[in-house]
Amino acid sequence: MQSLLNKKIVLGISGGIAAYKSAELARMLMQEGASVQVVMTEAAQQFVTPVTMQALTGNPVYTSQWDSSITNNMAHIELSRAADAILVAPASADLMAKLSLGLADDLLSTLCLARDCPLLIAPAMNKQMWEHAATQRSAQRLLADKVALLGPASGVQACGEVGFGRMLEPAEITEQLIAFFQKKSLAGKRVLITAGPTFEAIDPVRGITNHSSGKMGFAIARAAVEAGAQVQLIAGPCGLSTPLEATGQINRTNVLSAKEMHAATLNASDYDIFFAVAAVADWGIAKPAKEKIKRQGKQAPSLEFTANPDILADVVKTVKTKGGKPYPYCVGFAAESTDLAKHAEEKRKRKGLPMIAGNIGPDTFGSDLNQLLIIDGSGSKKIAKAEKLDLARQLIQLVAKKI
Ligand code: CTP
Fold this sequence. Notes:
Layout: E1 8-13, H1 22-31, E2 35-40, H2 50-57, H3 75-82, E3 85-91, H4 93-101, H5 107-114, E4 119-123, H6 127-131, H7 133-144, E5 148-149, E6 153-156, E7 162-166, H8 170-180, E8 190-195, E9 199-201, E10 207-209, H9 215-226, E11 230-235, E12 250-254, H10 258-263, E13 273-276, E14 283-285, E15 305-307, H11 311-317, E16 320-322, E17 325-327, E18 329-334, H12 340-351, E19 355-359, E20 369-376, E21 379-387, H13 388-402
Parallel strand pairs: 1-2, 1-3, 3-4, 4-5, 8-11, 8-13, 11-12, 13-18, 18-19
Antiparallel strand pairs: 6-7, 9-10, 14-15, 16-17, 19-20, 20-21
The structure holds cytidine-5'-triphosphate (CTP).
The site of cytidine-5'-triphosphate has 15 residues, from helix 11 and strand 18.
């Protein structure tokens, strides 16, 4: 799935060492289906050449407002008119100051002033420059002018210092640009999600777990952030990175056992929606050994199990109503080996859920693809086989209409 298909992006590059990452960024935007038109300041060309950017994007690179190859010689109008968004990465302290004051003394700054499309900037500079009151003033002014600031991140900088000012990674900028274009159907909503498997310890090195990659739950988390929600993601052990982390709209709590996952959902009534996507182990080990059970000279141990709490059922018990609608709106998941529709509907009723999503087909575990059978009180609907992120976006839209 290409999330930027048919989008025309003007990629502005200003002068900073992070400009070397703009080449990778251009490539990623194109992989998502965008066409990329690069505009570079004079300083940017000290760090990366127009030839590099031209070779990657397949488009001529513009560097001057006095370029006679553009119709009417009005590059600033022509380029911004064609764009769905202008993305400046890296945005230097100097460029931010200029944009915040409405100065327009080169092609990129003129283009930003003359635009009638959204402007997103990814600041990149030394920590002291970022923290300087003047830059912070620029950032506040730009935010007030509805310019979206992507980052900066904190970390080790090219100058050797550690702190805020580092440009977000190209993958994070791409993820945020994609999010920017998604419908904000959950703006202001709070979403709680359980994802991945749980792990029930037998001893300090062994345990039992469920089959789950966590990909569907993480895709729902990403789609919810894209839709404007504030997300709490409770993740079992799955090794996936947190989606859209740099937006500040997502908080992740890692857990191991079903009991830990249960404890992390105790404030579920603070949320508008609860997606129970985790493959929770129904039973834990009654008395996990404190030390590793040695194999030598011993027979295979027999394990005594104890029932784990049903997290979803306990959240359902806390549901209240607001304006005649239940909150949190609880969505369960069902992975069945037979009779999906029958078992899922039975599960929906037994757990008192307004909606359940059944995983169709045996090949969903670990795959990037899935297909869902959505059942609510009014009937059922299939969402055809697609990437999990695509399914997650469709599911979010369905739920958004319900709340
Ligand atoms: N679930 C949960 N806590 C549990 C077990 C399940 O929150 N201890 C949630 C899952 O996240 C999922 C839904 O309940 O949203 C259904 O999970 P599933 O394992 O399919 O159902 P069970 O209730 O465990 O029933 P069974 O194993 O008999 O199919």
